[in-house]
User: Fold these one by one.
Assistant:
Number 1:
Amino acid sequence: MASLLISAEHMITTPGGGPTRVLSPGFVRAENGVITEVGEGRPPGVPDADLGEGLLAPGLVDLQVNGFFGYDMVDADVDQWRTVVSRLPETGVTAFMPTFITAPVQVQAEALLRTRDLLPDLASGTKVLGVHLEGPFLSERRKGAHNAAYLTDPTPEAIAALLETGLVKLVTLAPEREGALAAIRELDAAGVLVSVGHSDATAAQTAAAADAGARMVTHIFNAQSGVGHRDPGVATQALIDRRLHPGLILDLHHVSPEAAKLVFQAADGRVLLVTDAASSAGMPPGTYELGGEPITMPEQGPPLRADGTLAGSGLRLDEALGNAAALGIDTAVAVDAATRVPADLIGRPDIGRIAPGASADLVWLGPDHRAHATWINGQKVFGGGS
């Protein structure tokens, strides 16, 4: 691979494992797809890209993508997968976790096998970090858009069947289900991140899940017990427990602006932005699918089931950063929530940061907070930028 030198008026960096900060101006140099130098001021030599207004940030990392551009990841064929991984850089995303929602365990196992077999045939594009299973080990009381007929307990047999391919890297479950704490310990031992979600658990039960190894809470406030002052639930524990990282869908529909500010203030440094994008994301209003069942994308707002239940989102992750900026969230904090925090949570210190030794996955966010150019492993895969 060729070398790459980018100069930017404003650049996010995480030097030497220290706090993330903004350099104004700054530059980054990469060789063979890996960052070799990060500096303040103008670079020595002529840069390959000289970026003006906006912000050079690490490539965005999304741990919850059900689908995009018309395709649901669980049953997408290889050409549809190619479309998604080649186009997600348009949104600034350089690494993601396709998310498979509730289905019978055997159906999920078959989807994992199919996905494992097609991944080697994908063209270069957004990196696939493994699969996020959102269900079927969820609460009937907090099922959201999931099919209640397929919800079940996380038995050792079910866990073994789903781990067989080695693709599963994140599992959302309800810790109050029978056998859930044992399942959390088993998943954690297998190197799988466990997230509490679609759960009616008490704060104490959520803390017990963290004791067993859970480290994340899926789309905080949505489809979970909340912040009752006498009956604290999942959301309460997510905000106060330093071991837990709340995922936040910052489309300003799933969570109000005020509640989003609360999350960032109470869980400072632990928030990760996710899209929970459905197949309707990036598409015009119409009818699409989520988990094999229809959803409707309206003119405004997130997609819905026929009964009015929210069914994922139409959010872009760069748009979530724009929403964070509009709320007054510090730039470095917001960018961390879409890059370094999710990367660290899944044990990938090679992505989600601009620092020597990390992959040269980069996005130039314009003044409109949208991706104007994206690089993966030092190769430009979207946009302009000189």
Note: The radius of gyration is 20 Å.
Number 2:
Amino acid sequence: MTAAPPAPSPASTRPGRHRVLWLSTIAFTLMFAVWLMFGILGNPIREEFGLSEVQLSWIVAAAALNGSLWRLPTGMIADRVGGRVVLTALLVATAVPTFLVSRADSYATLLVLAFLIGFAGNGFSAGISWNSAWQPRESQGFALGLFGAGNVGASVTKFIGPPLITGTAGATYFGIIDGGWRLVPVVYAVLLLVMAAVVWFGTPRHDLKPGTGAPLDQQLAPLRQMRVWRFSLYYVAVFGAYVALAAWLPLYYMDNFDVSLQTAALLTATYIFPASLLRPFGGMVADRFGARRAMYWTFGVMLVTTGILMMPNGHITVVHPDGTQTDHLAYELGLVPFVLLVFVLGCAMGVGKAAVFKHIPEYFPDNVGPVGGLVGMLGGLGGFVLPLLFAYTKEWSGFPSSTFVVLFVLTVVCALWMHWTVVHMLHRESPELAHHLDHPTPEEAPA
């Protein structure tokens, strides 16, 4: 006779919940590093294969696309079979194409492998579902923020990539592994397999599966609510834009400020760190003051920073009646103020990412997997679309700062939709709702 698994204990006293949180966060950090490794590998790949900026943007976009497509089913499956199984499977599945990148010999091969490596990005949905099941509701904002801080993995390659590429260029290891940029994916493939073993053997065997037995239509029912799609657009602005910019900034720095790959990587890290490490702080802010207030602050700061960053360097030339010309209102944003503004932009995104996901267990406590999966999927798809928009708008306009025009317009749309929703809800219900914006009530109709 088989012993039944132990009955679930209150979330605040479940043994193993801290191991779930920390090991899933470390695993997600590694997977995020792999997912965005082309941000640093892109320049040596561009030089070796003779790629254009648009071609390189498709490699970055391909990884972002597959890292988003499966977030909804991944979250639902994690709810049904447990995050432990799903996260381990994703770690193993990502290791294979990651290793094969080191053997790539054509642009087409790189595109296919970049797409397959995108499976790493779907680890986010598995981890959100897993931690939502294990962590107590009163601290879910912080817990999900801490897990989401695994986004800092985007900076890992920025630190280890350039010295590893430079220090091993031209070398060969074990007769089959080339040095230079090709060594980086080999190292990551080994780490992914090691991490898969750590997650599998280091977390509780009896996993929590809140979606077990729930009909598919019941799991998908919340997706018919407009607020889910609104949250998804917010996440495009704070996460999709983060993914796109983290991959795009190294090239932006090298092309516009004439710095080395290593310097560009370090400068990009000053954006990635606050955009990732402030996510737990953003969760605490959302826990304390409410997610909508945090989103107002986030969008306000993003509008100011992107509004300045989108201004092109140059001046206004006035042609006088006698044919002479004079230049006025010269404007140029130097490297230091540019880095500072991007740093502040990263801080806002770090808070905003946590605030968006604070909404989900508040409004959909029994459907975190599918709702979080959809929000994560559409946010990640922003990481697919935005690098292409960056490349094509630059090609069309000739202005490198058009990158930030795209982000400014996206933020304006999100901020206006959110504010219209809040004002509409207050006018429809009652002024007293102004003090309860972040806590759904039974009387509140879907907004």
Note: The first strand starts at residue 172 and ends at 173.
